[in-house]
Amino acid sequence: MTEKSSQFSAELLKSLKAIFDGKDVSLHFEVAMDHMTSHTRRVLECTSMIAVGYLTTYGTIAKTVGGSPRAVGNAMAYNPFPLLIPCHRVVRADFSAGGYGAGEKIKRELLQREDRGYEEDGRVKINGETLLFFPVKRLRKD
Fold it and tell me: Whole-model pTM?
């Protein structure tokens, strides 16, 4: 392993721990997605735009990138970097947690750690479309 790749690995592990601990982390590196369908890439790129302290729904992402909420969920199942591309921030239309590869309990814990007490909804433009996101406190408690 080269010194550069070793440094990158150390930085990545540090960032993953910070994300898991619910801290704000700004990451700037590209994830290899060439092997994925264009829809999966769009879903994951959109998901990567959801800020810490917020969540959105499968349906909201579907409206932004095209396809159905179920297709968005299926694309998330292929997320190779679940903390770096924060699919845990995507929930069902009724704001219940929904599925997560590591289990619903972990998904809820991650979202609770990321709660920043925001009150207002947020939005970001992605390829001319608006992605809406909502404060974590909207997550249903059941």
Answer: 0.83
